[in-house]
Design brief:
By secondary structure, the chain is an alpha+beta fold. The protein is 26% helix and 15% strand. It folds into two domains: 47 residues, no CATH class; 42 residues.
Length: 99
């Protein structure tokens, strides 16, 4: 057997496997399929800290994707806060525009 091939019949766990253990919450949100037919669709996705719910429902109007040029220091300030920086820019603009 080539050295990079795995023995599919092996029963021992891979000590180098860094995949997280599945929690009950993960199973609750996972898609359930039998013979390829989806019985229950997934209700979230796996994020770095476990199950994350899907996107919130769209309001009466969906957001539009645009291209916007910002000064590097402005962009860096919003990105400092981590994920969600685009939403923070949106909230800042809504505040300034009093929307």
């Amino acid at each position: 057997m080539p050295e990079n091939a795995r023995d599919l019949n092996a029963t021992s766990l891979d000590p180098n496997d860094d995949a997280p253990e599945w929690t009950d919450e993960m199973f609750e949100h996972a898609e359930l399929a039998i013979n390829g037919k989806v019985i229950r669709p997934a209700t979230g996705y796996l994020g770095p800290n476990g199950v994350v719910k899907g996107r919130p429902p769209l309001r009466d109007r969906a957001k539009q994707q645009v291209t916007l040029r910002l000064d590097p220091d402005v962009l860096a300030k919003f990105r400092e806060g981590g994920p969600g920086w685009q939403g923070r820019i949106n909230r800042a603009l809504r505040t300034i525009l009093e929307l």
